[in-house]
Amino acid sequence: MPNLPNSVLRKLFSYEQSRNGKQIPNTINGSLYEYACWNWVLSGGTLTTDDFKSNSSIIANVLNTDVMGYPLSIKQDAAQQYPQTGNADDLQRMSELLRGATMEGPELEQGCAVQREFLECLVRIMLRVNGLEPVQFDADNRLNVIVRSKNWWNTDHWALRLYLGPSAKQLIQTIPDWPLMFACSTAWDEDLAYVAVSIAGLHQNQIDQLATVPFSTCCAWVMRKPKEGESFPFICQAQIQSGSGQCGRCGFVACDAHLGSYDEAGVFRWGAQDHGLHKCQRCREGDMQILQLD
What we know:
By secondary structure, the protein is α+β, with helices and mostly antiparallel strands. Helices cover about 25% and strands about 25% of the residues. Strands 1-8-7-6-5-9-4 form a seven-stranded antiparallel beta sheet. Strands 13-12-17-16 form a four-stranded antiparallel beta sheet, with no helix packed on it. The longest helix has 17 residues, at about 85-105. The chain is elongated, with a radius of gyration of 23 Å.
């Protein structure tokens, strides 16, 4: 399973994060545009709701439910329908958790361990069925899938979380009839509880989509002095090219003209410090790595 190349990660993290993020090019058509969040995370946009591998199909094929959709039991043939390694263990665990989760009520509660574990098992099954490999969960893992839901046996919103460090994390997500967005600071549907599952890699088509994002322009705040006198700050926005610098910690980028460092007193000065490295203007902790893009 391919992993996201560092060259693509550097581009994705060269942008400032915001709630709604920024648009990934060429993601406003096809089944990705129509079926949105779960489709992006599970397949990169190749599924429809009728597919055997869709989230709704897997739920219908795994759970016996009452007329209101409330889960009653795990279907006996679920492991045969979805025989991927690890699914049988998760289905067995879901069967063990079912009564305890039911006793807690229908809504997924963030603090309810039995409900969250049930949904985590279900999400891992969905990932395996679609060719993605769940791994031991680690909040610091580079790739985490975030799933928000009203109920503990269903899914409402999916997002892919990229993590490089405490100052460099973002989410990639979409909704129906909306482009795929990156550099998002939070998983949408913030009022809903969530579960998180780590994965080992992505589909190649997902990587190809993310690779279409260009580098951001220079994000350095510099001082401009108009003819009439007073100086004022502005963002450079020069094109990033070889010789530009990018923070290895938070992803901040600056053109070669606006690299600089904070000295020991916390004062910013243009140019490198004695150790030859530029310190990031944004997080003040990461070293600026000189880019070779030619």
